[in-house]
Amino acid sequence: MNSSPAKLPNKSAAQKALEKLGLRRDIDLALHLPLRYEDETRIVRLADARDGDSVQIEGQVTHSEITFRPRRQLRVTLDDGSDTCVLRFLNFYPSHQKTLSVGARLRVRGELRGGSFAGGFGREMVHPGFKPAGGALPDALTPVYPSVAGLAQSYLRRAVLAGLAGADLSDTIPAPLTSKIGSQPMWSLREALQFLHHPRPDAALATLEDHSHPAWQRLKAEELLAQQLSQLQARRGRAAMRAPALGGPALHGAQGGLQQQLLALLPFRLTAAQQRVCAEIEADLKKPIPMHRLLQGDVGAGKTVVAALAAARCIDTGWQCALMAPTEILAEQHFRKLVGWLEPLGVTTAWLTGSQKARERREMLALIESGAAGLVVGTHAVIQDKVKFNRLALAVIDEQHRFGVAQRLALRSKMSENGEESGQEPHLLMMTATPIPRTLAMSYYADLDVSTLDELPPGRTPIVTRVVSEARRDEVIARIRGQLAEGRQIYWVCPLIEESESIDLVNATETHQALSAALPGVMVGLLHSRMPPAEKKAVMSLFSGGQMGVLVSTTVIEVGVDVPNASLMVIEHAERFGLSQLHQLRGRVGRGQAASACVLLYSLGDAPRLGEMAKARLKAMLETNDGFEIARRDLEIRGPGEFLGARQSGAPLLRFADLALDAELLAWARALAPLLLDQHPELAQRHVLRWLGGKAEYLRA
Ligand code: ADP
Ligand code: MG
Predict the structure, then answer these.
(1) Can you tell me the distance from the alpha carbon of 531 to that of 686, in angstroms, rounded to the nearest whole number?
(2) What's the pTM value of the predicted model, to 2 decimals?
(3) How far apart are CA 253 and CA 16, in angstroms?
(4) Pairing of strands 180-181, 54-67
(5) Ligand found nearest the CA of 591
(6) Which of 263, 265, 268, 295 gets mutated to test ligand 1 (max ligand atoms within 8 A of its CB)?
């Protein structure tokens, strides 16, 4: 006989599933908290239960049969004395039939469903759990944990229980420091965890569900503290690293230094905010420790010139500066601008992108490696292996949220590749036009210094925003004619539908055709992400050169494009865009003297009205032009994930704390972190390890 090997319980599969959930150590299991609870502490009378309830009942089997319509199934009728209910099993073994035979007394739990159903009517439970009736009832609620396919709750419960027993839950926060947050006395970690995994049935379920229960407060406080500690450690670790101090002799000293010469060349004066921010950066660059500074400023605030002045300082002391931008269009625009400013002053600038010809690239690489190029501008191409800097001292990352941790690390490591400067790190200036709300800055960016451009250059006319129904498209086109007659240019943006790039394209192409037909004699261009780079470049230069009157595009123009003569922006299907994105797009106009406007065209499609979130976004756009206010509302509407973008890829987002609700806990953690690190460094270390395990490294990038 050919017998197959005995089937062992597949432990390694469950183990793998646990690892997939990140549950490796005892403490990881102990910190794996229930999603919700089931109440197995009580037996409910069927007559008292409502349809849809998850209940536990006890009764006697009065009928049991296998039926074949609509498909093979085992149907068992259970009577608990108050009412009856049918238990249905679509998959069953002979052993089921035996346990579920007439006369058996059972304890059953599952979701009660009402109404009529195939082959009968009354109430039923499909695939309920069951065991013999009687037996003790548990005295705590049964936890239901977040899980993955192939990992049964029963296995997970046992694993968590074992983790809870095995983990070191001793307090890492000395008692005097935990005595209170606000008005609530603090639970200990051990108390909090034991409670959350097995709460008594009389616990206030609502406070467990909305996480306002003191046990949850303790967990959130712990998590925020871990985050603050790890960032503080990163910040202190950085202070121990070395970077070139860029206060050295100026190569262009004769005419007052490169910075002075650049300032004299600019057609405008710096705003007070720009001056302040430049001074903050200057002070950092002169120190022998690496700068990690985030420069935030609304669209159009003038971040590029700030970067140029920092670059000038760097180049003037004989070092190289690299500037990396997320898209080719943006990189090219920076390149043109910076070449225009710095080339007349004798600075050689190299240019690197993915699409450039091999010969050109070779020339550029040589310029960079020899040190002849003081400034290197480009896309991700800047961090490729082949790029060898001669003396990199300053790395500028524009639209930093578009880049990942790995890319920032790669750029930083471009310096230590070089023998002479090994062990040193370049200064890092990260720029963003998505202002970061205060609570986010305080938590996720606590390891960075932040400079803020809170003032727009003078002479900007405020942008008037209107929300207009798609039905009035003709009026919008009439308005475009008016603007064109005044010599202005127009952006028309079509949405990016992530699931379907092709629909997206059809949309933009159709709009392009319709506008071309409606505006005879006007050059109407089309720009989308799937065009070859050379073609994009050609379209962009026709628009920025003024020959093209209307530019229809997908969101490729979202970041940083600067055409001051453009005075009107139409955003089609504005209801589909995120709030920050709408604000970024709107920032493409209002850059010159002309009165500018942004028209948000919305379409209801088949829906009777706009969704709540879409409405909230459009309302915010109507009500404010202030990037910080926009950011605050966006956080309210969407939560933190979007702001952090790539920064957090690979690193844990906060699992328990909610920055919109837990500002008080965040303030507590922020104040406590330096105390703990200074007075109890070994406790601080244990705390970070407990919460972040091996993941803390990511937070340093
Ligand atoms: P962003 O902060 O969005 O990157 P840019 O650096 O592209 O903004 O600047 C927007 C426009 O404002 C550019 O045309 C730039 O030359 C101009 N600009 C920058 N600073 C000033 C200033 N102090 N006065 C007048 N115009 C300025
Ligand atoms: Mg910019």
Answers:
(1) 52
(2) 0.70
(3) 63
(4) unpaired
(5) 1
(6) 268
The secondary structure of residue 589, as a DSSP letter, is S
Residues whose Cβ atom is located within 5 A of ion ligand 2: 560
Question: Considering only the top CATH level, what class is 253-453?
Answer: alpha beta
3-class DSSP state of 392: strand
Q: How far apart are the first and last CA of the chain?
A: 62
By DSSP bridging, strand 54-67 and strand 73-79 are antiparallel
Our answer on whether the CB atom of 59 is closer than 6 Å to any ligand 1 atom is no
Residue 58's beta-bridge partner residues? 107
Q: Is the pLDDT of residue 508 over 50?
A: yes
Q: Are 310 and 321 in contact (CB under 8 A)?
A: yes
Q: Specify the pLDDT at position 370.
A: 95
CATH for the 463-624 domain, from 3.30.420.10, 3.40.50.300, 3.30.360.10, 3.40.50.720: 3.40.50.300
Spacing, Cα 469 to ligand 2 middle (Å)? 31
The CB density around residue 418, as the number of other CB atoms within 10 Å, is 15
CA dihedral sign, ordered 296, 302, 304, 306: negative
In this prediction, residue 572 carries a pLDDT of: 92
Q: Encode pLDDT of 436-490 as tens digits.
A: 776 677 777 777 888 999 888 887 778 999 999 989 999 999 999 999 999 999 9
Give distance in angstroms: CA of 274 to centre of ligand 1: 10
CB 290 within 8 A of CB 243: yes
Does any ligand 1 atom lie closer than 6 A to the CB of residue 295?
no
Q: What is the pLDDT of residue 701?
A: 34
Tokens standing for residue 134: 């009687």
Distance separating alpha carbons of residues 345 and 333, to the nearest angstrom: 19
Q: What is the pLDDT of residue 21?
A: 83
> Does ligand 1 lie within 6 Å of residue 301's CB atom?
yes
Q: Is the CB of 379 under 6 A from ligand 1?
A: no
Amino acid at site 673:
A
Question: What integer pLDDT is reported at residue 4 of this predicted model?
Answer: 42
Helical H runs in 246-399? 257-265, 272-285, 303-316, 328-342, 358-370
Superfamily of structural domain 42-137 = Nucleic acid-binding proteins (2.40.50.140)
Q: What is the pLDDT of residue 550?
A: 96
The answer for residues whose C-beta is within 8 angstroms of residue 577's C-beta and 6 or more apart is: 495, 571, 585, 617
Q: Which two tokens stand for residue 621?
A: 């756009």
Report the pLDDT value the prediction gives residue 377, as an integer from 0 to 100: 97
Euclidean distance between CA atoms 469 and 29, whole angstroms: 52
Percent of the chain with pLDDT over 70: 87
Comma-separated ranges of CATH 2.40.50.140 domains in the chain: 42-137
Q: Which residues of the chain form CATH 3.40.50.300?
A: 253-453, 463-624
Give the number of other Cβ atoms within 10 Å of residue 210's Cβ.
10
Q: Can you tell me which atom of ligand 1 is nearest the CA of 459?
A: 25
